Amino acid sequence: VACLEHVTKVYSTGSVAVTALEDVSVEIRAGEFIAITGPSGSGKSTMMHILGCLDRATSGRVILEGRDISEVTANERARIRNARVGFVFQAFNLLSRFTVQQNVELPLMYAGVGRRERWERARRMIEVVGLGDRADHLPQQLSGGQRQRAAIARALVNDPALIFADEPTGNLDTKTGGQILDLFSELHKQGRTIVIVTHDAEVAARATRRIALRDGRIIRDSGW
Amino acid sequence: VACLEHVTKVYSTGSVAVTALEDVSVEIRAGEFIAITGPSGSGKSTMMHILGCLDRATSGRVILEGRDISEVTANERARIRNARVGFVFQAFNLLSRFTVQQNVELPLMYAGVGRRERWERARRMIEVVGLGDRADHLPQQLSGGQRQRAAIARALVNDPALIFADEPTGNLDTKTGGQILDLFSELHKQGRTIVIVTHDAEVAARATRRIALRDGRIIRDSGW
Ligand SMILES: Nc1ncnc2c1ncn2[C@@H]1O[C@H](COP(=O)(O)OP(=O)(O)OP(=O)(O)O)[C@@H](O)[C@H]1O
Ligand SMILES: Nc1ncnc2c1ncn2[C@@H]1O[C@H](COP(=O)(O)OP(=O)(O)OP(=O)(O)O)[C@@H](O)[C@H]1O
Ligand SMILES: [Mg+2]
Ligand SMILES: [Mg+2]
Question: Are B7 and B57 in contact (CB under 8 A)?
């Protein structure tokens, strides 16, 4: 369902080039629950962004839902992403001038869902993550963990088949984090593919497969 | 060294008022290592901001270094903060147009430290948190955990007596997070006062005192 073949990613920062990923090959099959671990700076977010079609590899092939996405137009890439992929960003990436309700409705808007249905589906997701009484707040009127949950709600509202979550419990207490994990486990039981970057052993424990990164390379992959 | 007396904090969001803190009283003594825990949204960041002079209480008294800070001019508040307090923000708050080196030098600049000494002290702190090879990167050219460490370096560079850290290991793997904790423990051994908001049991375990919040109130305080 998502695949990297000999992917390398190099950032050029002024005079120095940073190799964030080096010759990474990985195949993600439908229905897996994968935990990606590794030290800070080892390339986890970079790998997730390329898998989720949000960033381009410097070299190598990227396959998403059977299509080589370098051979697909930018519009088609965006369409595939919006219909099939949910992405929870490490820095949340909420729009600061929009309320939680408006932020969570955004993917439904892109998918052409009508106003009434959009409102209801977004509101339901907002309640599922425990933000029912914060739906009309702006991001700066939320706590850190509330922003994280708003980002999670937005990623899941369009019921994507493939979910990428970059450290989704980093700002949550154990109880709230556990509830979010239960949510991911439930979605996995229903057949969705889940890929989570995490430092949390509890999260990694729930995964069916673990991939470890170091210095831009995969150093361990437990496979099925 | 820092004290809240019957502090209440109410935010008014349009039509609805949110009581983030309700009648909170706490005394922080010099040399303590305090862990503040509690569910997402319970008021931890709000309490830290008011203790660290970054936000005002709606009612109640706030004492920092023996001075009632509501009776002090805004300039004097800023001066006390810059000289005596280091604050690691939950959202990092790095300046996006400045490099890591420039961001970390900022508190030294405000303290009137000369250019050469500023550069050296900032660079040393940057190396202590493991960012020596990222000093000339901009925040968007860093991983999440690298941004967190840049925020930590900036908070500590002016050698403050009172350190507030809002979930400083949330984006760090266990090993890197452990190194940061060792740093805080070392600073504590040297006599500094440390207040950390955390969801991490490992962090809480190193504290000499634990304060638990729920719904804007202190529900438990282990004291000395
Ligand atoms: N500007 C604001 N306007 C309205 N409500 C706010 C504002 N800032 C914070 N709040 C609310 O105040 C409450 C406490 O927020 P705070 O950031 O202190 O929580 P926290 O304990 O740090 O949570 P977390 O663990 O998620 O970071 C939250 O319920 C939040 O929604
Ligand atoms: N735009 C950029 N320009 C230069 N280097 C970058 C850029 N973005 C990321 N990097 C570097 O690429 C490396 C990998 O970054 P990445 O964000 O994938 O790490 P990570 O494993 O997610 O780390 P963390 O656990 O801290 O979030 C880091 O060393 C980082 O400094
Ligand atoms: Mg990352
Ligand atoms: Mg907080």
Answer: yes
